[in-house]
Automatic annotation (TrEMBL):
Stated name of the protein: AMGO1 protein
Ig-like domain boundaries: 258-345
Transmembrane segments: 365-385
Name of encoding gene: Amigo1
GO cellular component, as recorded: membrane
Keywords: Cell adhesion, Disulfide bond, Glycoprotein, Immunoglobulin domain, Leucine-rich repeat, Membrane, Repeat, Signal, Transmembrane, Transmembrane helix
Spans annotated as Disordered: 403-480
Length: 480
């Protein structure tokens, strides 16, 4: 009995933390009530619950009082397959630290105003396989950490992509699934204005889209970049043509009547704050009937001259003056020809500094580099060109110095080619003075005096010992 009491006190499911609800399985801080035929959320819920699985039940309404107390540790709530048709706008007030919310495979029809605004830490939101047809503009307000939003298999005819354009509503969103909905047209200009990391993970397959060239170019661009949203669902990316009963593949529109679409071309241009740049629209089409530009913000520039910082030139190029950080993004030049239409994309990268600003950073780096080079030169001079510490040179007939003195003098001695010593010059031993040009004087460890110098072509040659201590340093010129 004493052991059981100790285990009960150590377990989170003791009397102080609460008991495991009926028909549920509890392990550590995980509470699983899946497939328990529940019509209401069990109450009370233990306050330390971190993962709550209520999937595959009959909880059709999630009211504001489903969690009477604050569940500060709950980070995952699973409510899929419940026939859920109503969620109160205050349903998540007691779970502020929720990071994963699964509401998939239910009967939700609309996302109401400020529905998820209490979930400031939410990262993954699953809403696929519902009956959602209306999405309020404020439904995703305050979701600053949301990374993945799944809205596939619903009835959405229009999703407010303008909420994502400037990146202020959902700044970290990296995946948006709108597949298998009722989208008939796509605002390609708004899609091009989306951040690159979101634009490349936008799933749009299985929608009854109307065929046009901008749609083809959008999908063809994804195929060229090998994006999974296009490569994995090429068969499901279809659209409808007038007078054609069955949908056709979007990628099959290249050169097909009556659209005759061609793939868009892309270019990348880099500039700096305050610069003036010109984006060229070098189309391959002849007999161009009209052309216009679309900015990353979705604004159309079609009149020559223009206003503000963007101006359309007579040759069809777009001139941007006094670049700002918000001018960065993808610009599209739409060209209409007699037979084909063409789109050219220009990715403008605006670096957040000017080329004409202060050069303090450059000057500091240059000064540091020069200082390092001078330090290396001084060290080399000290190692190889330091004079001997003797007052006068030895005479020609003086016997060689002892072994230790010869070693010390030959290791750090200079090697000018003079037969005899000159006062004021570095001191050299006989073995050093007899050395041939370009070779360091070497002292044989045995200490045996060298024979007197001979005359003739071989007079300057001298047998050197590879094991000599003086061979550590060389007189080879050093290039810095």
């Amino acid at each position: 009995p004493g052991t059981l009491m100790v285990l009960a006190l150590l377990s989170p499911w003791g009397s102080a933390g609460g008991s495991c609800p009926p028909r549920c399985v509890c392990a550590s801080n995980i509470l699983s009530c899946s497939q328990a035929a529940l019509s209401l959320v069990p109450s009370p819920l233990p306050r330390f619950t971190a993962v709550l699985d209520l999937s595959h039940n009959n909880v059709s309404r999630l009211r504001a009082d489903w969690a009477p107390g604050r569940l500060a540790h709950l980070h995952a709530l699973l409510l899929s397959h419940n026939g859920l048709s109503f969620v109160s706008t205050e349903a998540f007030a007691h779970v502020p630290h929720l990071r994963h919310l699964d509401l998939s495979s239910n009967r939700l029809r609309a996302l109401e105003e400020n529905l998820f605004s209490d979930l400031a830490e939410l990262e993954v939101l699953l809403l696929y396989n519902n009956e959602i047809s209306a999405v309020d503009r404020t439904a995703f307000d305050n979701l600053g950490r949301l990374r993945k939003l799944y809205l596939g298999q619903n009835r959405i005819a229009r999703f407010p992509l303008e909420l994502l354009r400037d990146g202020s509503r959902l700044p970290q969103l990296a995946l948006l699934d709108l597949s298998a909905n009722r989208l008939r047209s796509l605002p390609v200009g708004e899609l091009q204005a989306l951040p690159a990391w979101l634009r490349d993970r936008l799933y749009l397959h299985d929608n009854p889209l109307a065929c046009d060239c901008p749609l083809f170019q959008l999908v063809a661009r994804g195929r060229r970049r090998r994006l999974s949203a296009v490569m994995d669902f090429q068969e499901e990316l279809r659209c409808s043509l007038p007078a054609v009963p069955a949908p056709v593949g979007i990628l099959a529109l290249a050169g097909r009547q009556p659209l005759n679409c061609s793939e868009a071309r892309e270019a990348v241009l880099e500039a700096h704050l305050g610069d003036a740049v010109t984006l060229g629209c070098d189309t391959r089409l002849r007999g161009v009937r009209s052309r216009h530009w679309v900015t990353p913000g979705g604004e159309r520039v079609a009149e020559e001259g223009g206003n503000g910082s963007a101006a359309l030139l007579a040759n069809g190029s777009l001139q941007l003056r006094a670049l700002r950080p918000e001018d960065a993004g993808t610009y599209a030049c739409w060209v209409a020809g007699p037979l084909l239409n063409e789109t050219l994309y220009v990715e403008l990268v605006v670096h957040n500094f000017t080329l004409h600003g202060p050069h303090d950073t450059l000057n500091t780096a240059y000064t540091t580099l020069v200082g390092c080079i001078l330090s290396v030169v001084l060290v080399l001079i000290y190692l190889y060109l330091t004079p001997c510490r003797c007052c006068c040179c030895r005479g020609a007939d003086k016997p060689p110095a002892p072994r230790d003195d010869s070693i010390n003098s030959s290791v750090l001695s200079a090697t000018p080619n003079h037969a005899t010593g000159v006062p004021g010059e570095p001191c050299r031993s006989r073995s050093a003075s007899a050395t041939s040009p370009g070779q360091n004087g070497r002292f044989k460890v045995g200490g045996t005096p060298q024979p007197p110098p001979r005359h003739g072509p071989k007079a300057q040659r001298k047998v050197s010992d590879p094991d000599s201590v003086s061979s550590v340093f060389s007189d080879t010129p050093i290039v810095v």
